[in-house]
Amino acid sequence: MEEQKINRINELYRKSKAEGLSSEERREQKLLREEYLEAIRGNLRSQLNNIDIKEKDGRIVNLGEKYGSKKGN
Fold first, then answer.
1. Per-residue model confidence (pLDDT) at position 43
2. What pTM value is reported for the model?
3. Would 73 be classed as within a structural domain?
4. Are 29 and 16 in contact (CB under 8 A)?
5. Residue 44 covered by a domain
6. Is residue 68 classed as helix, strand or coil in its secondary structure?
7. What DSSP string runs through 5-32?
8. Structural domain of residue 28, as residue ranges?
9. Does the residue 46 lie in any domain?
10. How many CA atoms within 13 Å lie on the side-chain side of 47?
11. Interior CA angle at 30 toward 11 and 23, to 5°?
12. How far apart (Å, rounded) are the C-alpha atoms in residues 38 and 1?
C-alpha cells in the first residue's frame, strides 16, 4: 500500500478523535482501511505460502501447497 494512503488513514483517525468525521470522510476511512487490511492479508498469505516445514517422517511440505495455493489464494 502506498505511503500516501497510510498517511491519509492516520490523518483521518486523528481527525476522528479530535473533531469527528463527515459522512464522506467516514466512507473514505472505511475504504482505505479495507484496502490496507487486504494488503496485509495478501502479504501474510504470500509469506506463509513460501514456508516449508519438515514433517516428522522427513518430508518437506510447503504450507501454501498444503493449506492453500502458491499463487496467494
1. 93
2. 0.71
3. no
4. yes
5. yes
6. coil
7. HHHHHHHHHHHHHHT---HHHHHHHHHH
8. 3-67
9. yes
10. 6
11. 80
12. 9
